[in-house]
Amino acid sequence: MTRQNQDKEKISLLFICLGNICRSPAAHAIMQRDVDDAGLTDRFSIDSAGIGPWHVGSLPDRRMRQHGARRGLDVSHIARQFDAGRDFRSFDYIVVMDDDNYRTITKMATTDADRRKVIKMADYLKDHHGAQSVPDPYYGDGADFELALDLIEDGCSHLLQAINGKEDNLAMD
Ligand code: 4NP
Questions:
Q1: Tens digits of per-residue pLDDT, 98-127?
Q2: Which residues are annotated as active site (predicted)?
Q3: Which residue, 10, 83, 110, 117, has most beta carbons within 10 Å?
C-alpha cells in the first residue's frame, strides 16, 4: 500500500466493483461513515466507480439501499464507470472487491506506482477468517446482501486503521 504526494491535503480512496450499484457504493457509504465517526472527514476524499458501463447514472440497487438503511447507512452514490487515466491520477488507493476486479484494474495501470495503488478489500477482512473476496450479491438474496455489508464493514474498519498507521499525522478518535 503506497501513497504518492504525501503532503497532498486529502487522502483519496476509490472503491471499485463490477457495476457500482451494490458493493462499491456500500463501501463508499461505510468508509465515509467510519471516517466521519473518527473525526477525519476533512482528511479524506472518498468515491466509488464500476468497471462496466451498464448502470452509469443510476442509484444503487434498491436491495443494497434497503439493507444499508437498516444499518443507518445512506447508500446513494450515482454510478459512474472507472476512468483509468483520470482515476489513477486522482486517487491514492483504489480498493477492489474481488480478484476479477483486481485483474481488470491492474491491467489498466500503466506504471508500477499506479499498479501499487490497487488493493484488495479481502486483505483487510480480519473478522471473517478465510474470506477471499467480497462476493457479488447482485444475483443473490437478502442474505448475500447482508454478507456483503458485513464483509465491507469489516474491511473498511481495518483498512482505515491500516491507512491511519501509515499516515503519522492522522489523529483518530
Ligand atoms: P456490483 O454488483 O459489482 O457489486 O455493483 C453488480 C451489479 C450489476 C451487475 C453486476 C454486478 N450487472 O451485471 O449488471
A1: 999 999 999 999 999 999 999 999 999 999
A2: 17, 23, 136
A3: 117
